[in-house]
Design brief:
The complex is a heterodimer. By secondary structure, chain A is α+β, with helices and mostly antiparallel strands. Chain A has helices at about 30-40, 45, and strands spanning about 5, 20-25, 55-60, 65, 80-85, 90. In chain A, strands 2-1-5-3-4 form a five-stranded mixed beta sheet, covered by helices on one side. Chain B has helices at about 5-20, 60-75, 95-100; strands at about 1-5, 25-30, 35-45, 55-60, 75-85, 105-110, 115-125, 130-135, 135-140. Chain B has an eight-stranded mixed beta sheet. Classes of the chains: A alpha+beta, B alpha/beta.
Chain lengths: ~90, ~150
Amino acid sequence: MAIKLEIPTALRPFTGKQASVESDAATVGEALRRLTATYADLHKHLYTDDGRIRSFVNIYVNDEDIRYLEKENTPIKDGDTISIVPSIAGGRRR
Amino acid sequence: MLLLSEEIGRGIREHGARGYPNEACGAMLGVDREENREVRALFPLINRRDDSPRNRFSVTAEDVRGAERAAAQQGLELIGWYHSHPDHPARPSDFDRDQAWPWYSYVIVSVAAGEPRDLTSWRLADDRSQFLPEEIAARAGAPPAK
């Protein structure tokens, strides 16, 4: 079973410049854990210190946001594509 | 080093002034090279933070995808983001750093009482500990942004 993980440009310096990585994980959470186990420097950009996916990291399975599926427990099957899509935020202090 | 033509710099400053007193934001499309990166076009966006637009900005994942498509259509890459700091220096806040992605250039323009002032650029350190200043150089004779 093979699924594809699409890596956004901003994170490719941490995946040896690869735009996509294959995985045989069964859930989104497992695929991301394996990805960050292989490319350890990615971890801090995707997860907070307490292990939650950062608020500006959006994960899609075939264009469906996992927040509207089963979040990290969302099952994945052969041929699925997981995309990591940034959202951008900031602003001056109060 | 970030190469900016006078026209691109003016575009960022004018967007910041138009958005005042709210924060204005947009994407920067260009070319990333080993030795430098060059902004060739701007992709102005709507600040989605309508609850506190004077001190926050937000760009949705859909907007990011739209900016990536716009870049691809012009044979460019999405290389960074700009936003304004109304009545505040052009330095990243802790909130900017908490929310930042690596690799992108983050340009900030200060807008004082509606007038655009300093324009700076920053890159997040790979360990997320700080924003590092990125030198801005004038790009003379750049082709006009589309």
